[in-house]
Specification:
12% strand, alpha+beta, Rossmann fold, globular, two-stranded antiparallel ribbon
Length: 104
């Protein structure tokens, strides 16, 4: 297990971007059924975040992520954060005017 002292103002997606710049070929997600390097995770999350932005996700937009814990969930969480969205996991209750975004 790695322990890291964080600055109060740094976000998870910024930490991943920093690590991708420092150690792009290191395994970021895994081991298990699949692995992903920091560079691949960063590239994939950037592409998917752009897709979310095109459908209207912007800073502080709450985006629900309802799925079992999995490889795809880790990638999806990072894409939401990179798009500027706020991640809501589990069974979010939608307020009036809220919408679900399906990217898959």
């Amino acid at each position: 297990m790695t322990h890291l002292r964080l600055q109060n103002s740094i976000c998870v997606h910024q930490l991943v971007a920093d690590q991708a710049a420092k150690s792009p070929d290191a395994v970021a997600v895994g081991p298990g059924e699949r692995t992903l390097t920091y560079r691949a995770w960063e590239d994939r999350a950037n592409r998917l975040a752009e897709s979310l932005r095109r459908v209207g996700v912007q800073p502080d937009t709450v985006v629900g992520l309802c799925m079992k814990r999995s490889f795809a969930m880790v990638v999806g969480a990072l894409e939401i954060l990179k798009a500027g969205g706020a991640l809501s996991s589990g069974r979010p209750r939608l307020s009036s005017g809220a919408s679900l975004v399906h990217t898959g």
